[in-house]
Every structure is written in C-alpha cells, then in structure tokens.
Amino acid sequence: MSHKRVAILISGGGSNMVSLVDSMIGDHPARPCLVLANDAAAGGLQKAADRGVQTAIVDHRPFKGDRAAFEAELLKPILDVQPDVVCLAGFMRVLTGDFVSQFQGRMLNIHPSLLPKYKGLNTHARAIEAGDAEHGCTVHEVTAALDDGPILGQARVPIEIGDTPETLAGRVLGYEHQLYPAVLRRFVCGDKTPVLLP
Ligand code: GRF
Asked: 47 partner at 20 to 30 Å CA-CA among 7, 33, 119, 129?
C-alpha cells in the first residue's frame, strides 16, 4: 500500500510539525513528504532535516505584501511533492482564497482556541481577559475565511487561577501535540469524525 503524502508548512519552532512527523510511522497510512517554511530561520527546519524529511524555504519578505506573488512561489515546492494533504502547523501567514482553493478539502490547520471563539492572534490572553473557565485548541479544514472551516478536532484545557498567557499557552501546546496527530490519522483514512480531548 502506498502511503498518503503529507506536506507541512511552518513558520517557527515547528513543535506541532515534529508531533505530526513523529506520528507517521509503522502502520500509519501517511508519511511526511515536505516541511516548508516561510523563514530560513525557522527552528523547525533543522528538526525536519534531522528526521530525514525534505525541507524547503520560501521567504515571504522579498514579496513585500504582494501576497499573490509570494503564494505563486510557495506553491512550487508543494506541487513538486504532490501531497495528498497539506498541514499548516504554526504557519503564520494568511493565505488567500485562491491559494486555499487549490487544496480545498485537504488542507488542515491548528489554531490555539476553541473555535469559533477567538479567531486570530493572542488567543490565550483574550481567554484569560474574558474570565473564561476553559480554553483549548482546534484542528479545522482550511477555507478562504481565516480560522474558519469544518472542525475536525478540539481539546479543552481548564484555565487555572494565576494562569498567564504563557503558562496557558504551554498547557494548550501539549494538547495540540496530541490532537493534531490524532486528527491527521483519522483524516487520511477518510474519517472526519471530530476528535474530542480529553
Ligand atoms: C502554536 O501556539 C500553535 O497553536 C500555533 O502556532 C504556535 C507555535 O506552533 N499555530 P509550533 O510550535 O511552531 O508548532
């Protein structure tokens, strides 16, 4: 049986990418085929290389806000590896509907909130500020609308007295590392039943 091919896009440390790559072993039906970063300094690139995964870099800065030109370049290494699934994992660039539409139904993202709450940035601080009892993370299919799209999994994390955005983010990140691999495994098997943790 040939494996499903998974391309992963990162911008930074790539801890979610590492969790995904390390999960795709043994009888897992998928294997990573590319780790692509929009920044040559992304720490995840070395972690991917250490795991024998092909890497590529398309720096967004030379395109200075010309999103279409950046995405035209970003597309090339992805199309070269012909992925079945594209996972955004700590990828911090907003993608246009044109780009996303080329992977509609097979592009996933992890967002550190219980969507539809707290789309966008600084989610942990906003949840604490709002006095919420819990926070968490969501894996969803990527659509043209930011941090929207069908939910494929969520992990709920209690907000504790004295939590700072940093302590909460650290706890949520640990759940991200469990949730994303669990969702990906179901997704590549064609199972869209949401994964709900704990
Ligand atoms: C995480 O908070 C994740 O939720 C968000 O990007 C942050 C860094 O992720 N998408 P990673 O360590 O680069 O995977």
From this structure: 119
Average pLDDT, the chain: 97
Q: Give the model's pLDDT for residue 148.
A: 92
The pLDDT of residue 65: 83
Token readout for 166 is 């940093």
Note the pLDDT tens digit of each residue in 61-90. 999 989 999 999 999 999 999 999 999 999
pLDDT at 22: 98
The preferred substitution site among 8, 15, 183 for testing ligand 1, maximizing ligand atoms within 8 Å of CB, is 15
- Atom 7 (ligand 1): residue with closest C-alpha? 90
Q: How remote is the CA of residue 63 from the centroid of ligand 1, in Å?
A: 24
pLDDT: which is higher, 146 or 28: 28
**Sheet of 55-57: strands edge to edge?**
55-57, 30-37, 4-10, 85-88, 107-111, 134-141, 151-158, 195-197
**Residue 111 catalytic?**
yes
| CATH, range 4-190 | 3.40.50.170
**Which residue of the set 111, 124, 135, 140 is catalytic?**
111
What does DSSP say about strands 195-197 and 55-57: parallel, antiparallel, or unpaired? unpaired
Q: Determine which residue's CA is closest to atom 1 belonging to ligand 1.
A: 90
Q: Where does ligand 1 bind, in terms of residues with CB under 6 Å?
A: 10, 12-17, 89-90, 110, 112, 137, 173, 176
